[in-house]
Every structure is written in structure tokens, then in C-alpha cells.
Specification:
It is built from 17 helices and no strands. The protein is mainly alpha-helical and about 400 residues long.
Length: about 400
């Protein structure tokens, strides 16, 4: 069994680099891309959303591959695809080549970011995988802190093309060998009970279980809300009566609260069932949105909103990694969590555009907040449905068919 510290250390480095180069760098480089290629903002940001759609479509096959071959070569392949995609982006001359580059980057996202890392941890660590996932998300939270200023500096010195090219080189020189260094996975053991294999759901069995679809719906709705708010939170606060400087200042609370939530999950809730942690996490978001909808003009209410919103968003990443194993077992975690992540990635791509469309109309602020509040309540209901129905069926009783 591989030492957890080695696995976490390797993945911490590669997650920071991959999130930084594939996800966070785009915000900084987008204006230069628009000027250089002569593309409209809709086309440029649409390419990024397209990459998230691609990632959603590839999520399930990527999980199946990790279940079958382990994270070592799958994530290393993702680093190679990432390097090719970033190099392609750096040489783009028009909309077609630009979108082709983002197609490769979307595939690379699925093979290198959290879902792949969580599945790799699940295979390598027979015990303590939840704690390892919590620790990894703490390191991953530094990606924006490091790569926003680094990308801004490189963009000023070199331009967006060379920045993406150097990020591709880093994928080849750093992430690819580190992923190979993960080593082979230990032999997976099946935990027998007197009646059946304990909680050993296959992907097909999970897809026929109502808990899977309830949980996928809960995550998808939450992701839609977080992606919409990530882009439009500051304009929303301004429309609610906050000044631009105050809106920015209040929004900066969210990042530290995400980290605080993850630290609290690792320390205060480490012995609490992930289902219980998830219930608390999903409950905080509708409470936060209700306060913002009713009293968003009050600065101290916005502070409370940012605290609850940040805590919920921070802990949700851990819940996303731990709850599929708690409900469906370890054996096919990659395939099941990949299938569950697909709708969420599609929601992440759709959220900002849907919110922008609503905000174009008079009264759009209230309409958007009410919609997001309703979605957060629905996501909580779906989650509670999932954790209640998962106890009603076992793989053997629900899906095993008698042999003839």
C-alpha cells in the first residue's frame, strides 16, 4: 500500500498546476486573446464553456479508465493531452483552431482535475481516503492564489500565447512525470459478507439506483448556482445597493471561508459520517441565498451570506469526493463519480450564460436570486432524498438476478 503522504504530495502539486493553467489562467488571459484574435467576448468565453461541456461528456469514460487501469497512466495521459491542448491554444489563429484547442483542454480537465484525483486516491488508499481528499482540496485551494498573479506577470512579460506555451511545458516537465511516479495501484480487495459483496455497486447498478440520480441532481443544481454566482456576484451586490469597492471587499470573504470550511471538515467533522456533513453543507446555501434575496442591501447581511456561501462551497468539494464511496463503495468509484460529475460540468458551463440572460431584463436581479434560491432548496431536497433512499437497497438485493 502506497504511503498516503506520497500520493497526496504528488497530487497536491499537479492539482495546483493543472487548476492554475487549465482553469484560473483563462480569466487573466481572456482580454489579450480577444484583442489578438479579434473575437467577441461571447466567442472567447464560449470556448471556455465548450471545454467544460467536453469535460462533462468525457467524465464517465475517464472514470471507467481509472477504475480499470489506475490513476498513474490515465492522469499522465491527461498531462500529455493538456500540454498538446495548451500548445495548440498558443498557436491559434482563428475561431476554429481556438475551439479545437479548448476541446483538447476539456478532455485534459477530466483526466487531471479533482474527479480524477479523487478516484486515484480512492484506489490507492484502502483507508483514510476521505481525510486524504480533504487534505488535497486544501492544497488545491492555493491554485488561484498562486496562478492569478503568476499568469498576470507572464502575460505582461510574454503575452498570452507564450504563457499558455510555458504552461504546456510545465505539464510535460512536472505533472506528467509526477503522475507516472504515482506508481501502480494495490490489488483491490472485495470485502465479503455472509450474504453478498458489501456495497459493491457497478456503474450499471448505480445508474438504476434512485440515490444516484437524486445525488447527481443535487450536485448539478449546486454547481449551477456556484458557477453563476462566481461570475455575477459582484454585479449582483452592486444592483442590491452595495458600492463597487464594498462589493469587492465583501466578496473577498468567500475564499478564506472556503478554506475555513475545509479545515473544519478535517478537524471538527473528521469522525462524522459524510452523509451528515453533506446535509449541513447543502443546508447552508439556501439559508445564505434567502438572506441575500431579502436583505441584500445591508452590508452585514452580505457578510453573513459570504460566510455561509464560502463554507458551503468549500466543504462541498470534499462531499463530492467522499459521498459516492460512502453510498456506492470503492470498487467502481471512478466510473460512478465520473458519471455523477458529468451533469455538474454541464451545469457549470450553463450557469454564467443563464444568469447573464436574466440580468439583461428589468427586474432580472430579483428573478435570478429567486431562481437560485429555488434551485438551492431543490438541491437540498434531492440530497436528502439520496441519503434516505441509499439505505433501502443493497447491490445484491436490488440488482442480482438468479442464474439459470
Amino acid at each position: 500500500m502506497q504511503q498516503p503522504s506520497k500520493t497526496i504530495g504528488i497530487l497536491a502539486v499537479t492539482q495546483i498546476v493543472s487548476w492554475g493553467s487549465l482553469y484560473y489562467a483563462f480569466t487573466i488571459l481572456a482580454p489579450g486573446i480577444q484583442r489578438d484574435l479579434g473575437l467577441s467576448p461571447e466567442l472567447v468565453f464560449g470556448a471556455f464553456s465548450w471545454s467544460l461541456l467536453v469535460a462533462g461528456l468525457v467524465a464517465t469514460p475517464a472514470g471507467v479508465l481509472i477504475d480499470r487501469y489506475g490513476g498513474r497512466y490515465v492522469m499522465a495521459t491527461g498531462s500529455l493531452v493538456c500540454a498538446i491542448g495548451l500548445a495548440w491554444l498558443s498557436s491559434s489563429t482563428g475561431v476554429v483552431s481556438f475551439y479545437c484547442g479548448w476541446t483538447l483542454v476539456g478532455i485534459a480537465m477530466t483526466f487531471t482535475l479533482y474527479e480524477a484525483a479523487f478516484a486515484t486516491i480512492n484506489r490507492k488508499l484502502e483507508t483514510g481516503s476521505r481525510q486524504a481528499i480533504s487534505t488535497l482540496t486544501l492544497f488545491g485551494g492555493f491554485a488561484s492564489t498562486l496562478f492569478w498573479p503568476l499568469t498576470a506577470m507572464l502575460d505582461t512579460m510574454l503575452g498570452w500565447r507564450e504563457t499558455y506555451l510555458w504552461y504546456g511545458v510545465i505539464q510535460l516537465a512536472v505533472c506528467l512525470p509526477l503522475h507516472v511516479w504515482l506508481g501502480a495501484d494495490p490489488v483491490q480487495k472485495r470485502h465479503e459478507t455472509s450474504n453478498h459483496v458489501s456495497r459493491g455497486y457497478t456503474l450499471a447498478q448505480a445508474l438504476r439506483h434512485p440515490a444516484f440520480w437524486a445525488l447527481a441532481s443535487a450536485f448539478s443544481l449546486n454547481t449551477f448556482i456556484f458557477s453563476a454566482m462566481a461570475v455575477h456576484l459582484i454585479p449582483l451586490l452592486e444592483r442590491l445597493g452595495q458600492s463597487t469597492s464594498m462589493a469587492i471587499l465583501l466578496a473577498t470573504l468567500i475564499g478564506p471561508m472556503q478554506v475555513a470550511g475545509r479545515v473544519a471538515e478535517m478537524t471538527l467533522a473528521r469522525d462524522t459520517a459524510p452523509q451528515t456533513v453533506g446535509t449541513l453543507t447543502f443546508s447552508m446555501l439556501p439559508a445564505a441565498l434567502l438572506l441575500l434575496t431579502l436583505f441584500g442591501s445591508l452590508a452585514w447581511i452580505v457578510v453573513v451570506f459570504c460566510i455561509l456561501y464560502g463554507l458551503s462551497n468549500g466543504i462541498l468539494t470534499i462531499v463530492r469526493g467522499s459521498i459516492p464511496q460512502a453510498l456506492f463503495g470503492r470498487e467502481n468509484y471512478g466510473a460512478i463519480s465520473g458519471a455523477m460529475a458529468g451533469p455538474s460540468l454541464l451545469s457549470k458551463a450553463a450557469g454564467p450564460f443563464a444568469a447573464a440572460a436574466l440580468l439583461r431584463y428589468e427586474g432580472g436581479t430579483t428573478t435570478l436570486l429567486c431562481l437560485l434560491l429555488a434551485m438551492s432548496i431543490a438541491s437540498l431536497a434531492f440530497y436528502l432524498r439520496a441519503v434516505s433512499t441509499e439505505r433501502q437497497l443493497s447491490p445484491a438485493k436490488a440488482f442480482d438476478k438468479p442464474t439459470v
